[in-house]
């Protein structure tokens, strides 16, 4: 099972969509406060549909609280458009942590500095980034492909 981490998510539809993806791919979702929304049926229903009740998810008050419960920081992969290593160069394993930042600015330099594994999703120079739900789907798909080939 992969662990998907959203640090300070801002848009409820994206989080709901990612929750739905996690249910479908049997991933665990970790949400780090503060959020740009409240977790309510109303906020998540449109994109998360009725799948949210099946989601294995956890929330943390701070990044520090999330980091303190990590069993192995070397298995944490942070997504950044500034990284030089592609998700296709990583060697993913079961129980890895895939970390995504808030929609408006990504992960802070303080969070990035605490981990070594920074990855990017290759994209055309015509865009700055992908939607976060699409980004999570790209990375989960590649990680699951690698894990299931073993």
In one word, what is the shape? globular
Main sheet: which strands, in order across?
3-2-1-6-4-7-5
**Helix proportion:** 25-40%
Low-confidence stretches: none
> What's the total helix number?
5
Strand tally: 7
Termini Cα gap:
14 Å
Order of helical and strand elements: EHEHEHEEEHEH
Strand content: 15-25%
Structural class: alpha/beta
- Mean pLDDT score: 91
How would you sum up the major sheet?
A: 7 strands, parallel
Query: What Rg is obtained from the alpha carbons, in whole angstroms?
Result: 14 Å
List the keywords.
150 residues; alpha/beta; 5 helices; globular
Describe the model.
The protein has 150 residues and is an alpha/beta fold. It is 33% helix and 19% strand. The protein has five helices and seven strands. It has helices at 12-25, 41-48, 63-68, 109-112, 132-149; strands at 3-7, 28-32, 57-60, 76-79, 85-86, 97-100, 117-120. It has a seven-stranded parallel beta sheet with strand order 3-2-1-6-4-7-5. Helix 2 links the parallel strand 2 and strand 3. Helix 1 crosses helix 2 and helix 1 (12-25) runs parallel beside helix 5. The longest helix has 18 residues, at 132-149. The relative contact order is 0.21. The mean pLDDT is 91.
């Amino acid at each position: 099972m992969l662990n998907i981490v959203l640090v300070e998510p801002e848009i409820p539809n994206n989080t709901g969509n990612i929750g739905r993806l996690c249910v479908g791919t049997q991933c665990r979702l970790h949400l780090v406060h503060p959020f740009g929304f409240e977790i309510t049926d109303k906020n998540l229903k449109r994109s998360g549909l009725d799948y949210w009740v099946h989601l294995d998810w956890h929330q943390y008050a701070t990044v520090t609280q999330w980091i303190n419960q990590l069993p192995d920081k070397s298995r944490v992969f942070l997504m950044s458009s500034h990284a030089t290593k592609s998700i296709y160069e990583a060697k993913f394993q079961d129980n890895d942590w895939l970390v995504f930042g808030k929609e408006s600015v990504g992960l802070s330099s303080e969070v990035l500095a605490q981990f070594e594994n920074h990855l990017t999703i290759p994209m055309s120079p015509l865009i700055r980034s992908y939607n976060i739900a699409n980004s999570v789907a790209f990375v989960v798909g590649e990680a699951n492909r690698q894990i299931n080939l073993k």
